[in-house]
Amino acid sequence: MKIKNILIITAMSVIGLTSCNSDSCNENPFFSDYGTYLEAPAFDKIKNEHYLPAFKEGMKQQKAEIEAICNNTEEPTFENTIWAMDKSGKLLNKVSGVFFNMMECMNNDEMQAIAEEVMPLMTAHGDDISMNPVLFEKVKYVYDHRAEMNLDDQQNRVVEKYYKDFIRSGAGLNEEDQAKLREINEKLSMLSLQFGNNLLKENSNFKLVIDNEADLAGLPQSSIDAAAEQAKKDGKEGWVFTLSKPSLIPFLTYADNSLLREKMYNAYYNRCDNNNEYDNKAIIKETLALRLQKAQLFGFDNYANYVLDINMAKNAPTVDKFLDDIFYSANELAKKERHEMQCLASHEGNVNAEPVEITRSDWWYFAEKLRKAKYDFDENQIRPYLSLDNVRNGMFMAANKLYGVTFAKRNDIPVYFEGVETFEVKDFDGSTLGLLYLDFYPRESKSSGAWCTGFREGGYDIDGVWHPALIQLVMNFTPASGDTPALLNWDETETMWHEFGHSLHAFFSKGKYSRTCGSVPHDYVELPSQIMENWAAEPEVIRMYAKHYQTGEVMPDSLIAKIENSALFNQGFNTTELIAASILDMKYHELTDVDEINALGVDEFEEQQMKAIGLIHEIQPRYRSTNFSHVFSGGYSAGYYAYTWAEVLDKDAFNFFKESGDLFSPELAKSFRINCLQECGNDEGMVQYKKFRGQEPSIEPYLKARGLK
Predict the structure, then answer these.
(1) pTM for this predicted structure
(2) For 633-691, how does the pLDDT look when each residue is reduced to its tens digit (9 = 90+)?
(3) If you count Cβ atoms within 10 Å of the first and of the last residue's Cβ in the chain, which end, N or C, has fewer?
(4) Is 218 left (phi over 0), alpha (psi -120 to 50) or beta?
(5) What angle do CA 458, 459, 461 make, to 5 degrees?
């Protein structure tokens, strides 16, 4: 899920709008009700010219709401201070929920120009709230007197969370340090924006054009057809391959031409590290220096400890030990995998030859050959059973069996791009939980990867009326080609179920207060998503959705068995590259000297850290520094470890289901929904998890699933 600053963009409330005097109010769809079902964004009316006026008016209105709290002469109470603040910012949330999501999936030069103007304004607006001395004194008064105010448990929790938010946002600093913090925050917001824009440009900047059909040897027909269509779209002769995952991964996995594989590999891993106008090395250094300065303003020795102070892990040494313990075993397993592939590579060239050293760009290629040799399993065998529609319907069926929810396609909801699907999500009692937007395919205006976010979070307004969530899942999957529908590989299948898990978290979260409704520590966020991947891979569930797109035949048990048998294949590589990236993230944010950061050579630092942990040469961290968007533009700084931390939880939780003898146990599903999704913000992450599990999570199911034990 996307992360946002709770003090900049607060609640999805319905506080009455103050009047707008501009003539454009009548034309700007943000300034009135959309008039759509569930007040879904009116994408058929929203234009780029509407964003900036709506942002400015939204900040103006929230400023007035905050001033009203500050000017209230009555004694501060939960209702006139915390509740009023929690429900402020309706218009600002409305426009932010659309604009920043469109920046990720419908980006262009005009949107970037708007963002460059908006980001400093939004950052200053957030700082004006979080460093407002009068507002902070009122919040502090409620915090100091909360024991005397007859508050319930959730009200107490909201007060404590807001008080800590203010402290962590600079309310307790002196004026000089607050001024420094404001300057740092503004610079960081712009650097994050620039990092992401550079990466978007680099993603679309590279295209491999092939005009010799012999160079397509080894590639599946689906990849060849997609490349031919891309060439037509680009006005090129032959075939065009891009750095989008549906184009890149099949090329690295199947193309026999090693020189072209290397070219594609280097283009992908060297994004924004080409000493051109899109190079991110200077941005990284400035970002790290500013983050350290920010942490030091709050008395932390490094930025990692500042971030982790409010996470389940609590501090950097805990995360470091957690990652180190896993990395050693994973790296040893990766060495064994490398040896097997080297033997295979030698055998293919010369039966009597000594094992040869495969290169980084060879790994996917020989791993796939090894998988086929060991398990008689070619992933192209399963694609015909994994049409996008079948996979989507399968996850809907699983959610229905677990929680009783249903999904009905809506064709009357405005969408921002042709082909985006919308579904109305209803609970077991028939009540509407919200709308789900599904955006499946790559385009140049869309960031790479996959994510879940929302145009509006579900929540109560100031009058106690519930407003359903409007949730968006964005993917970059292999598109349809000719008469063949979109057929997914296994990684894409798991990705869809993963992001869908985030959406269930969003739809089920229920709470009166926006600050705590659905709010969990960063290293808990991936639990609701990753647990759904487990169901996707169970034979019982596979039979529910994996049906041949032409014949309707259910995937045969022999093929399902191959998926099961090969589940641990290449886990050394998968785990090692993930943990290596997590360690790199931590090492950057454990730096304690600004001068050292300023003198840093980004590539050299990365290489030094990977050498220090003993990462084998054939593997690089999942993201290299200059394209590590999670960390430098996506809210996961000193937090990429969260995927692994949460995987320990999800494997333990799913093992609980399996041990019950019923993958869809109504009792466990109800408990998981209530404690880990619906009421997840009611207490600390581990407390909520233990309400479901009855004990601390065990790491054993994780180690077993990763082939590390």
Answers:
(1) 0.94
(2) 999 999 999 999 999 999 999 999 999 999 999 999 999 999 999 999 999 999 999 99
(3) C
(4) left
(5) 140
Contact 322, 332 (CB under 8 A): no
Cα separation of the two ends of the chain:
31
C-alpha–C-alpha distance, residues 636 and 650, integer Å: 19
Sequence-ordered list of residues with C-beta below 8 angstroms from that of 284, at least 6 positions apart, any chain = 195, 588, 602, 625, 626, 632
Phi-psi region of 490 (alpha: psi -120 to 50; beta: other; left: phi over 0): alpha
Taking only the tens place, the pLDDT of each residue in 143-194 is 999 999 999 999 999 999 999 999 999 999 999 999 999 999 999 999 999 9
For the chain, give the number of residues. Answer: 709
Which long-range contacts (C-beta less than 8 Å, at least 24 apart) are formed by 291-294?
A: 291/188, 291/589, 291/637, 292/591, 292/592, 292/593, 292/594, 292/597, 293/180, 293/184, 293/594, 294/181, 294/184, 294/185, 294/188
Closest residue by Cα to residue 413 from 350, 472, 370, 360: 472
For residue 152, what are the contacts with CB-CB under 8 A and spacing of at least 6? Answer: none
Q: Give Cβ neighbours of residue 521 (< 8 Å, ≥ 6 apart).
A: 310, 311, 312, 684, 685
Find out whether 646 and 319 touch, Cβ atoms under 8 Å: no
Domain 23-130+132-168, what architecture?
Up-down Bundle (1.20)
- CA distances for 298 relative to 165, 169, 171, 291, 316, angstroms: 12, 9, 11, 11, 16
Examine the residue annotation and report whether 137 is marked as an active-site residue of this protein: no
Write down the CATH number for the domain with range 383-565. Answer: 1.10.1370.40
Indicate where the chain has its CATH 1.20.1050.40 domain(s): 23-130+132-168
Quick one: pLDDT band at residue 481, thresholds 50, 70, 90? Answer: confident
Between CA 480 and CA 477 the distance in angstroms is 9
Angle, CA of 540, 544 and 545, to the nearest 5°: 125
Question: Facing residues of 422 across strands?
Answer: 410, 437
Distance between CA atoms of residues 425 and 432, nearest Å: 6
The catalytic position among 104, 337, 499, 618 is: 499
- pLDDT reading at 4 higher than 90: no
328: exposed, middle or buried (Cβ count in 10 Å: 0-12, 13-18, 19+) = middle
156 is written with which tokens?
């107490």
Asked if residue 500 lies in contact with residue 545, where contact means CB atoms within 8 angstroms, the answer is no
Residue ranges, comma separated, of all CATH 1.10.1370.40 domains in the chain are 383-565
Q: What are phi and psi of 622, to 5 degrees?
A: -50, -35
Residue 589 · residue 301 · CB < 8 Å? no
Express as a percent the part of the chain with pLDDT over 70: 95
